[in-house]
């Protein structure tokens, strides 16, 4: 793919393309050319050159997102290239920066920022081998511990111990890398490379370990907290978390499935919910909240009304919301600020059409992403949906998988979607008429793939033709049957699978033991 490159950048590419020559010549390179050479090396996947550039980095900061993003010399954004060769070279170069510089007194590097790296589904790097967030967490922790061991065992220059570099990173911790990361965080005050956790994601982790490691990350600095799969956090644990730790900079919070379950609510639970709402109100930076697959019927107002800052992103998919919940959302001060909204799993057109469209209308001036999966949107609702979406002129993403819509209705809807000026991504369902007659919605996993694939391909072609004829080649339309791509889940799916099998086995054993006791 051709991109605009300056003569300077083309020269930089030529310089780093001969790795041996470039490495020998680095000492004679002007300091202000290091960023340029770094991006050129990254583009050409010159791992050895990247390592030496970082090892000899002459500037105060090293911000990977900025260095790889769009620049005057090269417009191509490389921040979504999580190339394993390049990233490993960056991190080992950083370790060797601490160890191998001839004179520690001239070292200027104070901050390394790894948070701008974006994990995406399609990689364009030549090696095709990625280093995801989990692997970056693992490698940085390992290098920090190795560095400590080396410094303890070797006679180093006194100045080496005075080096202090903050390494900003989005940590991803599971059972498999927990011990390593916990050790690195525990000893970070002794290490020249200080792990500074800006965002934290946890999957497949026992609660006790989660509480221990979240304390080690320094919650005061945390901006994003994601507790996602197989962390058995329930409402009482969330209350303990918020009562025992403060998250003043937290902007984004994702809670695991079934954190809340109002079906079994007692007076104590009501008090807990009130307390959680009040604690979230103290998080004055909080603008993104995801709590899918909890049961929150009739309690949305109690949870969200204390918030003093309006939410920009809200995911309440499959939360069993009722009319009162939807009415609160439509009339709340959050509505005018919502840039991303997920109401999947709610029978929107039948249960609360007027309040839903009021919510859509109030958020229309800022709404960028709307997800309405498994919402029982049928052919008879399409005109109403078009009417509701018409004011949403900033909409970039619309996902509506799992709805019983015919091929004809999808064509009608796509004709309208072409009119949304900044729309970029559409996830649409397999048409109802591609499935056997009598299929019931929501479709279970076993039946999800049992449709006429040839007919689907033909309809998908027609839908893309509608986009093409409207000069909307910029819109990507797809049907990811099992949901959107999740880079973190993709990276750790083997561990997740093993955890689920272990969980299932333990449940079976408990059930068998219980039966044996009864008999």
TrEMBL record:
GO terms for cellular component: cytoplasm. Keywords: Leucine-rich repeat, Repeat. It comes from Sagittarius serpentarius (Secretary bird). Belongs to the PRAME family. LRRC14 subfamily. InterPro entries: LRR_dom_sf, LRRC14/PRAME. This is Leucine-rich repeat-containing protein 14B. Gene3D superfamilies: Ribonuclease Inhibitor. The keyword Cell wall biogenesis/degradation does not apply. The gene is Lrrc14b. It comes from the Eukaryota.
């Amino acid at each position: 793919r051709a991109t605009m490159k300056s003569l300077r950048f083309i020269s930089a590419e030529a310089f780093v393309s001969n790795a041996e020559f470039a490495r020998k010549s680095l000492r004679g390179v002007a300091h202000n050319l290091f960023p340029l050479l770094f991006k050129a090396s990254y583009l050409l996947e010159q791992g050895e050159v990247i390592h030496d550039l970082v090892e000899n980095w002459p500037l105060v900061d090293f911000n990977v997102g900025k260095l790889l993003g769009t620049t005057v010399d090269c417009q191509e954004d490389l921040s979504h290239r999580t190339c394993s060769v390049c990233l490993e070279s960056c991190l080992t170069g950083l370790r060797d920066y601490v160890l191998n510089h001839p004179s520690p007194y001239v070292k200027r590097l104070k901050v390394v920022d790894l948070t701008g790296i974006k994990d995406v589904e399609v990689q364009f790097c030549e090696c095709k081998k990625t280093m995801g967030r989990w692997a970056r967490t693992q490698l940085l922790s390992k290098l920090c511990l190795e560095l400590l061991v080396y410094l303890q065992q070797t006679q180093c220059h006194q100045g080496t111990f005075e080096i202090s570099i903050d390494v900003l990173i989005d940590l991803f911790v599971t059972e498999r890398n927990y011990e390593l990361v916990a050790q690195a965080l525990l000893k970070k005050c002794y290490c020249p490379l200080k792990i500074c956790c800006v965002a934290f994601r946890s999957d497949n982790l026992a609660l006790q370990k989660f509480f221990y490691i979240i304390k080690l990350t320094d919650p005061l600095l945390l901006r994003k907290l994601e507790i996602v799969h197989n962390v058995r956090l329930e409402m009482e644990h969330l209350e303990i978390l918020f009562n025992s730790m403060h998250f003043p900079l937290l902007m984004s919070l994702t809670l695991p499935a079934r954190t809340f379950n109002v079906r079994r609510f007692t007076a104590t639970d009501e008090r807990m919910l009130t307390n959680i709402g009040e604690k979230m109100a103290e998080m004055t930076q909080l603008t993104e909240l995801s709590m899918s697959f909890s049961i929150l019927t009739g309690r949305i107002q109690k949870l969200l009304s204390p918030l003093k800052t309006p939410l920009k992103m809200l995911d309440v998919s499959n939360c069993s919301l009722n009319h009162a919940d939807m009415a609160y959302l439509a009339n709340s001060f959050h509505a005018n600020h919502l840039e991303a909204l997920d109401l999947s799993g709610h029978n929107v057109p039948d249960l609360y059409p007027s309040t839903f469209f009021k919510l859509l209308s109030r958020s229309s001036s800022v709404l960028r992403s709307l997800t309405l999966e498994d919402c029982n949107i049928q052919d008879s609702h399409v005109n109403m949906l078009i009417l509701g979406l018409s004011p949403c002129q900033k909409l970039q993403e619309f996902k509506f998988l799992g709805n019983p819509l015919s091929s004809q209705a999808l064509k009608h809807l796509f004709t309208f979607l072409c009119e949304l000026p900044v729309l970029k991504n559409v996830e649409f369902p397999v048409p109802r008429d591609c499935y056997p007659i009598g299929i019931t919605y929501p479709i279970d996993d076993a039946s999800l793939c049992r449709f006429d694939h040839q007919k689907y391909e033909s309809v998908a072609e027609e839908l893309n033709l509608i986009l093409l004829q409207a000069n909307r080649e910029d819109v990507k339309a797809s049907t990811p049957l099992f949901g959107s791509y999740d880079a973190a889940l993709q990276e750790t799916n083997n561990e997740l699978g093993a955890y689920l099998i272990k969980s299932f086995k333990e449940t079976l054993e408990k059930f068998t033991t219980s039966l044996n006791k009864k008999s």
